[in-house]
Amino acid sequence: MGTDSLNAAKQSSTALMWAGILGIIVGIIAIAVPAVASVSVAILVGILVIITALAWLMAAFQSSATAGWKITGGILALLLLIGGFWILFNPIEATIGLTAVIAVVFIVMGVVRLGTAITHRGGEGAALIGFGGVLAIIIGVLIASSVPSSAAWAIGLLVGIQFLFDGIGLVFLASSIKGAVQASGK
Prior knowledge:
Helices cover 88% and strands 0% of the residues. It has a domain at 3-35 and 91-185. By secondary structure, it is mainly α. The chain is built from six helices and no strands. It is extended and about 60 Å long. The longest helix is centred in the C-terminal third of the chain and has 32 residues, at 154-185.
C-alpha cells in the first residue's frame, strides 16, 4: 500500500471512529429518552414530506409535461405539503400513526422471515432466521396491542437501538481499518 493510500485509510478510520462514537451517544440518548426521540423522528418525517412536496411541485411546474400531469403533480404536492405541515404541528399524533405502521411492518417482516425459515428449514441459518421472525412478530404484536401508549417509547427505543449498534459497528470497523493500516505500514 502506498503512502497516499495509507493516509487516506487512516483518515477514513478516524472519521468512521468519530461517526461510531456519535452514533453510540445518540443511541444511548434515544434509549434513555425514547419519547423525545420518537417525537424527533416524527418531526424529521414531517420535514422530509415537505421537502418531497416541494420536489413534486418543482417537477410538476418546471417540466414540459401536459397540463394533466401538472395538475396531478400540483395536487400531490399540495397533499404532501398539508401532510408534512400536519406532522410538524401535531408530532405526537403523527408518532402514534408511525408507531402503528411500525407494528404492522414488524409483524409482516416476522411472517416473511418465518416463512423463509420454514421454506429453507435445515439450511444454514434457517433456525436463526425463524427465531428472528418469531421475535419480530412478538415485538410487532406488543407494540400494536399498546398503541397509542407505545408511541411514547417504541420509535425512540428502536431508533436508539439501531444507532447504538450502528455506532458500535462503525467503531469496530474503524479499529479494523486502523489495525490493517498499521500492519501494512510496517
